[in-house]
Amino acid sequence: MNKTELNTVDAQDRAPTSMSRKTFLRLSLGTAAAVAFAPLTGCSKPGRKLRFKTINDCLKETALIENNLATLQMQQPWSLYKVLEHMAQSMEYSMTGYPQMESSALMAAARVVFFNVFKPQGYMSHDLGAPVPGAPEIPDNGPLEDAFLRYRNACSDFQNFTGALMPHFSYGELDYANWEIAHAFHAADHYSSLTY
Description:
Elements: H1 21-37, H2 55-67, E1 73-74, H3 80-96, H4 104-121, H5 144-159, H6 176-192, E2 194-195
Antiparallel strand pairs: 1-2
């Protein structure tokens, strides 16, 4: 297997498919209060259960992954190329604006989940096969070197960004500290489902 052809595991080896983002958000508003009284532990997906708080945490794990490509195994629906491009795309949109926003009702539910569930428990869990709404489709495979570079550049651009950050397509307005947490949680969730 070469670097540009890392494939995902067979369907029978994957965990059951996660619910869609919209279904999750609709259910979350009603369950967020209950979760606040009984915080979630663990993660329903297989993998390493990584916890990142900063962009530097993301960059450290990215370097480890890049240095261990020969033994990398994916336990999610996307290739490593697509994961890196997706995470870079999401980080870039936080600085330039997302192409499509959720409805105000879904955004309100997502904010409750982000601030009352994800932040207190220290990680997020989301549909690992869900693209950014309205974003151009990312091919399954491409040059991994380019994907690593794009992701590292997006991280650097975010760390050095001094302008006004754009609203998250689902969480809405976030300050820089919460945006960093959102990006770190997002990367940790994707990286948790691969091993090397």
